[in-house]
Design a protein that fits this description.
Length: about 250
């Protein structure tokens, strides 16, 4: 059985790690390279960096950050934000990223997923999906840092990205983001029911119990968290110990 993964997420804005609630009210929590090294030494399985305000002007900064992180950590890490072309992805992979995440650009141009998967292999292509529940009980896909409703049905979009070649889905519940109230189990189960690629659960981790719960009640292979790790509320070692005690396969 595949071991379950603990994945700290570092949202990067203007070269700094930030954290907010429901994608707003951002607080500065540190330097991305220092944070990456600290998480690596703490025993995380992977890292995710999302440049949440990426523009072409900032991409050089992101590439340099990726290089520095690759020199410091020796676990897989994913970089996303502002990736609009095969060339953009190539730059991040060459700088040392193991995987590259696309979100808004994939919605605008689904062919980007196929092109990147054909060029670099599906294992390098992560599609990040931000979902929010609508009044009718369905989930819609949001883009632009969670500010814009695309009107797309989340379940149909998840199916589509895998058909196009995505090797992994990073699924964030916007309703749960930063609330520390637990993962959106219903949304995760619904998406896991229609795709056959690994899913990383994101949005809502408030303690170790929430991470154990998402592994016990859904088929996700990774749990992503930010606030609880950034602010030292829970340690990765404590979380993994609790997971093992709960009978979950984990790399200690």
């Amino acid at each position: 059985m595949l071991k379950k993964r603990i994945i700290p997420c570092l949202d990067v804005k203007d070269g700094r790690v930030v954290k907010g609630i429901n994608f707003i009210n951002l607080t500065d929590v540190g330097d991305p390279v220092d944070s990456a090294r600290a998480y690596y030494e703490a025993g995380c399985d992977e890292l995710v960096f999302l440049d949440i305000t990426a523009t072409h002007e900032e991409r050089d900064t992101t590439v340099e950050m990726v290089r520095q992180v690759a020199d410091q950590v020796f676990i897989p890490f994913t970089v996303g934000g502002g990736i609009r072309s095969v060339d953009d992805m190539n730059k991040m992979l060459k700088a040392g990223a193991d995987k590259v995440a696309v979100n808004s650009s994939a919605v605008t141009n689904p062919q980007l997923i196929k092109d990147c998967a054909e060029k670099f292999g599906s294992q390098c292509v992560v599609v990040a999906i931000d979902g929010r529940k609508e009044l009718d009980g369905t989930w819609h896909v949001y883009v632009a840092g969670g500010r814009k409703d695309t009107g797309k049905d989340l379940i149909e979009w998840a199916r589509e990205v895998v058909r196009l070649g995505a090797g992994e889905i990073l699924l964030t519940s916007m309703d749960k983001d930063g609330t520390k109230s637990g993962f959106d189990l219903d949304m995760l189960k619904a998406v896991a029911g229609v795709v056959d690629v690994p899913i990383i659960a994101s949005g809502g981790a408030g303690n170790s119990d929430h991470i154990i719960e998402v592994f016990q009640k859904t088929p996700v292979t990774g749990a992503l968290a930010a606030s609880i790790f950034h602010f030292g509320e829970v340690s990765i070692a404590q979380t993994k110990q609790a997971m093992q005690e709960a009978g979950i396969e984990v790399r200690l």
